[in-house]
Specification:
Length: about 500
């Protein structure tokens, strides 16, 4: 195969070749099997990446250990400045990197630009954080004593990202983790391997420019059954941050926690939007449309269930069907299109089999339900199905653009339906009732990690902690106090007196 630089010149801008190395540990390497990157728009190959062997994974960990002390002892504001430079490097490559995301992942260009911007914003956020992380000074009951909390780096961590956000999720973890003083190994999704290589080149250039060891940020591309297993079983890695399916996340949780490691798990979503009878439908309609078709329904925050109050059901559905029929679908690099392909042939299969199962369980297809055969890639129609509220299929997240519509008679019924699935990531309520708002955000309201009012389920900002409950995994990334997951806390008691009093007034005389 040959890279089509004439058609996609941004590949050359990002330093990608016909054959690329899939290991970085300060030096580029890779001697495992070749992995072919395929464009979901055309179903044709783009380039190849040479994957890591078990020995090459080990070389990354050795490089991380070698670099750790230097990086840990680098003052946090200086680490923050390195992260700032990573953000600046990403800014310079924003356009070609966004185009690569559209080509290899399949999301439309506008969304791809937003994804790269999210990593840039995380770098800005973490740079500021590098001068603001503090501990506490705690009153001591003993005279001449002081207690304070000290936060230190965890050490070595592993980050495993998914295909749907191959840049942004890395940014959530990497910007914060690097500021906290950790060294990391990154395993990106195999189906977005060119993006992984391109981003690693950008980040590595910053460390090289500053004369810092490449072991601070290492990367491996390799099969989950070999390289992935080595990574999660490695007791030298204090934390594994994983984004992906609930089934794989459950396995990772069992393995990592059995060795007393930490995890950050961002797993299934199965999110709902509730539209009440007092809702502003002009707000709710575009929110539902974007949340259902954005990234072709392959966001963890995509809306899967639309819970409509019976009083607005007919009006809203009429408007929704009229809009969804006008969505332009095609090449994600064409800025006129609002939806690109699903990511792989396996996703098309999941879509077709999911619709068949929905119909089998009593669902009715109101729009869509078909592959777009006249387009050469993995294109499907966004699909709206009227599904019985007790259908078992509702509890399963189909990671494709299928939206279940369910009629509800009250706010309480809507909340119960929202909370009835095993997952608990994002949720949205559209209402003008302040009573509903505070019931929704309170202890008897939504059981999700992201609880929204009059905005959609997608599009979380980096300043707030991102993550969910139940089978979503319970992890938190990005803002708020998520940085604490990447550090270890020491409670330090210092006696500056000449006596040795004991706590709780205990007297112990020899």
């Amino acid at each position: 195969m040959a890279l089509t630089y004439s058609e996609y010149p941004f590949l050359k801008e990002l330093g990608l070749e016909e054959e690329n190395f899939g290991v970085y540990n300060g030096k580029w390497g890779g001697s495992g099997e070749f992995l072919t990157a395929v464009s979901p728009t055309t179903a044709k190959p783009i380039a190849r990446v040479r994957q890591a062997t078990a020995e090459e994974y080990e070389s990354c960990v050795v490089a991380m250990k070698s670099a750790l002390k230097e990086w840990q002892l680098t003052p946090m504001p200086k680490r923050g400045d390195i992260v700032r430079q990573i953000g600046d490097a990403l800014r310079k490559h924003l356009t070609p990197l966004a185009k690569l995301i559209s080509l290899e992942m399949g999301k439309i260009y506008a969304e791809a630009v937003g994804e790269v911007q999210e990593f840039i914003d995380m770098c800005d956020y973490a740079t500021g954080m590098s001068r603001m992380i503090t501990g506490q000074v705690i009153p001591s009951e003993r005279p001449g004593h002081v207690i304070h909390e000290n936060w230190n780096p965890l050490g070595l961590i592993g980050v495993v990202t998914a295909f749907n956000f191959p840049v942004a999720v890395l940014g959530w973890n990497t910007a914060v983790s690097l500021v906290c003083g950790n060294c990391q190994v990154w395993k990106g999704a195999g189906t977005t391997s060119l993006i992984t290589v391109a981003v690693t080149k950008i980040i590595a250039s910053v460390f090289e420019h500053n004369g810092l060891p490449g072991g601070i940020f290492t990367m491996v591309i390799g099969p989950g059954r070999t390289v992935g297993e080595l990574l999660i079983q490695d007791n030298r890695l204090s934390l594994i941050s994983f984004t992906g399916s609930t089934s794989v996340g459950r396995h990772i949780s069992e393995v990592v926690h059995s060795r007393f490691g930490r995890t950050i798990l961002e797993l299934g979503g199965n999110n709902a939007i509730l539209v009440m009878d007092d809702a502003n439908l002009d707000l709710a309609l575009p929110a539902v449309v974007f949340a259902s078709i954005g990234t072709a329904g392959q966001r963890c925050t995509s809306v899967r269930r639309l819970l409509l109050h019976e009083k607005v059901y007919d009006n809203f559905m009429s408007r929704l069907l009229n809009v969804i029929k006008t969505v332009k679908i095609g090449d994600p690099l064409n800025k006129e299109n609002l939806m690109g392909p699903v990511h792989t042939a396996a996703a098309v299969k999941e879509y077709e089999e999911g619709i068949a199962e929905i119909v089998k369980q009593g669902g009715k297809v109101l729009y869509g339900g078909k592959r777009i055969s006249e387009l050469s890639g993995y294109f499907v129609l966004p699909t709206i199905v009227e599904t019985p509220k007790n259908a078992e299929i509702i509890k399963t997240e189909l990671f494709v653009p299928i939206l279940h519509v369910i009629k509800v008679a009250s706010f309480d019924e809507a909340v119960e339906s929202n909370n009835s699935v095993p997952q608990g990531l994002s949720s949205s309520l559209f209402t003008n009732s302040m009573q509903n708002v505070f019931r929704w955000t309170g202890p008897a309201g939504s059981d999700c990690g992201l609880v929204n009012v009059n905005v959609g389920t997608s599009g979380a900002e980096i300043g707030g902690a991102f993550g969910g409950e139940k089978e979503t995994g319970g992890g938190r990334e990005a803002g708020s106090d998520s940085w604490k997951q990447y550090m270890r806390r020491s409670t330090c008691t210092i006696n500056y007196s000449s006596a040795l009093p004991l706590a709780q007034g205990l007297n112990f005389h020899q």
